[in-house]
Amino acid sequence: MHTLPLAFLFLKGILIGFAIAAPVGPIGILCIRRTLSGRYGLGLMTGLGAGVADTVYGAIAGFSLVGIAALIIQYDFYLRLFGGLLVGWIGFSILKAPLRSNTLNNNQKETLFHGFTSAFFLTLSNPITLIAFAAAFAALGVSPVGDSISQSLVLVGGVFVGANGWWFSLSTAVRLMHHKISDVQLLWINRASGIMLLGFSIYMLLSLVS
Questions:
Q1: What are the b/e assignments for 80-97, b being 16+ CB within 10 Å?
Q2: Which of 87, 101, 177, 201 is deepest in the core (most CB within 10 A)?
């Protein structure tokens, strides 16, 4: 890794983490939906799970852990199969209970640990994230060749802050709008969320045979 001031490297890590986390996908929909259900903490833990998983991939790329990266690529099919099925199951579950009262009851049964782990494993099931980090590092002139543990730690720390900064911002923004949403609007948001998640699931599964 090129010799860079640690503060500058940390800022680059924040930018990369934020940029990798920001595109709205299955986790973004899940985080929004759980926050709208009235449980801000569950939305935050969903984001944290995704942020930690992103950090894991960032660490693999930042520390040049070639063996782990090769293992992930080797089992790419099974990881994406797991992710596609998990997204589909979550989407189907949302469609089964679209009303506000049912949504609240169902989300009360979801623990914060479940919110964290479901998002963590769902994010981890997408090995493309590893490639995205490698590309982002290259684009910002960060070459993770593993010659400095301290620089790698600072970089990965920045990725963690950036990724979780995005999820905190998203959950908080949705939380602030929560009370302005009517029952009818929440009904359609839930239905749209379930349909979009099923769409992501179908796309992920179809990509396995393409």
A1: bebbbebbbebbeebeeb
A2: 87
Express each pLDDT in 2-19 by its tens digit: 445 888 889 988 999 998
Q: Nearest Cα to 134, choosing from 60, 197, 52?
A: 60
Rounded Cα gap, residues 107 and 9, in angstroms: 39
In a domain, 1, yes or no: no
Q: DSSP of 25-39, one letter per residue?
A: SHHHHHHHHHHHTT-
Domain region containing 105: 6-206
pTM higher than 0.90: no
Q: Residue 165: inside a domain, yes or no?
A: yes
* Amino acid making up residue 137: F
Cβ distance 155 to 12 under 8 Å?
yes
Domains held by the chain: number: 1
